[in-house]
Design a protein that fits this description.
Elements (H helix, E strand, L loop, with lengths): L21 H8 L6 E2 L12 H15 L13 H15 L8 E4 L1 H13 L5 E5 L4 H8 L4 E5 L8 H7 L2 E4 L13 H14 L2 E5 L15 H6 L11 E6 L11 E4 L2 H15 L4 H11 L3 H27 L4 E2 L8 E6 L10 H10 L2 E2 L1 E2 L12 E5 L5 H20 L14
Parallel strand pairs: 1-11, 3-4, 3-5, 5-6, 6-7
Antiparallel strand pairs: 2-8, 7-8, 9-10, 10-13, 12-13
Helix pairs in contact: 2-10, 3-10, 4-5, 4-9, 6-7, 11-13, 12-13
Length: 422
Amino acid sequence: MSRIKKSCAPRYARWLQSTNNITQQFLAIGGRQDFVSLAGGLPASELYPIELMREAMDRALTRWGSHALEYGPVEGFPALRDAIARRMSRMTGRRFAVGNILITTGAMQGLDLMGKVLLDPGDLVVAQFPTYLGALDAWRARQPVYEKLTWDLDRPGFDEALRRAKFAYAVPNYSNPTGVLVPTPARQLLLEKVVEAGTLLVEDDPYLPLQLDGAPGPSMLAIDSAMGEQAPYRGSVVYLGTLSKSVVPGLRVGWLVADPELVQTLAVAKQSSDISSSMLTHALALEFVDSTFEEQHAPKVVAVYRERRNALLHAAEEYLSDWFEWDVPPGGMFVWMRARDGTGAPVINTNDLYAYAVDEKVAFVPSSVFDFEGRLTTAMRVNFSRSSPEVIAEGVRRLRRAVERYLTSNSRVPPSLSRASF
């Protein structure tokens, strides 16, 4: 008797039921020639220093030889850790030691590791709202609950939330998705409350180099480290940095700065993720950290991004201002567009608008994915760093057509393009 082999469908973990694939969608869309993607938070690839990378790789291999091709310490290439410690010391005016530094695979791995070592199901995170999608994704499998950090720091119940939280999470410089720059007094007050509550503050700072107008205030790490003379640093801030915005994202080199005991705990968690990050990319990154390249390259990037931001704002004023409003972001990569209310037309639900935008071959990111409850449906994140001014203008024109079709349509959005597919 022949046996019929049954298919074996894997039983996926329950947390996957709460996730989305919006990041996969906009990365896929970004590779299509017929689409204008205003969705991803991607740097301008034409600015990547390809020739300098080639030269830096040659120097790195000459300098380090086979050491750059081996497995290495879980904490990262020792010389790079030392260089990042010196970099953070210059930035803050206080001395950081190698023991304060963990080299990560982009800042995203730092977020993932914080969830891995601190969060159990049901634990509380106080997170800047709207919240960076990557952070929500990094912690989703840990199944925490959230309290909104809206910078209304004296609101009833906020101090108690901090006391219960495993950590607070903030992106004070040109945050993703809103582009907001948090004033220094608010940074100081949040840090004071975190210290008083006896919890940690995760300061995510990937957009620091992208200062389009003016300069940011001091980091919360700098504020905290100024309160004590001890070295190594043993304060309440966990700081995340990266080379993805100032050099290239393909290096996948970031760093985490924290109390040495926490760094070692995170390293234990890291070894079960990757055993060892790439010593080759660490050696290559060291060539840029040890040189003046970033200082020379960043102004070129900023000039291009400023032109593109202004092009987006100009096109949006012409084509979208009847339905959306926004603030001018002083840095970063994004404009946060909020649907107007009281215009006589229905308030725009950007989950539904997304389907019409895709049909018009333009993409943005709906606001709901930046809300841990999924209820924020009246805004959208629009990127300006990736495309030329001409392409941005065309994308905004397509967005206008999508809005017009959305407002005149009485049909429901097809389920395949609703938020359930994100």
